[in-house]
Design a protein that fits this description.
- It is a single chain.
- A hairpin with a 4-residue loop joins strand 4 (about 45-50) and strand 5.
- The protein is of the alpha+beta class.
- It contains 4 helices and 8 strands; from the N terminus they run ββαβββαββααβ.
- The protein has helices at about 20-30, 75-95, 135-150, 150-160, and strands at about 1-5, 10, 35-40, 45-50, 55-60, 100-110, 120-130, 160-170.
- It has a 3-stranded antiparallel β-sheet with strand order 3-4-5, with no helix packed on it. A 3-stranded mixed β-sheet has the order 6-7-8, with helices on one face.
Amino acid sequence: MPVKRAGKIFLRPVSIFIHYSRIDYLRKNLSMVHIEVTRVSDDFGFEGTDDHGHRVAMDSSPESGGHNSGFRPMQMLLVALGSCSGIDIISILKKQKQTVEGFRISIDGERATGKEATLWTHIQLIFELKGAIDPEKAQRACALSIDKYCSVAATLKAAGCRIQWECRINP
């Protein structure tokens, strides 16, 4: 709104505020992740979608009323552990100029029994790497991932899970 002083008109400074909801603000923050999970069947079938459009199917076992149409939610934690540690390991070995031609991770997990919620208590990973790879560098990369860099491993350990691993080169 203009202000008149001594015959001259001055414009008052106007502050413009861009209003974002808290969710919008958090989504713009790089540490915030948005996932949507939608029921896609009349029973326990769900589909998870991230903000890039990637999708994953989840369901329950037929014994508990599901149709076996996707991963169980607790299996997704094992997939996340394998993927997270795998990304770390490949990244470390690439920096060390190692040639990884093949990589497979076998994961077995054991859950608590006789109580709810049934958390993972023990997980065993076997990292199988193929290529021109120094075994000591591979061992060190696996250790760094599980003990330091992998956020999924840290999350599971914080919940009391014991994680063991083995590294095999050119099995």
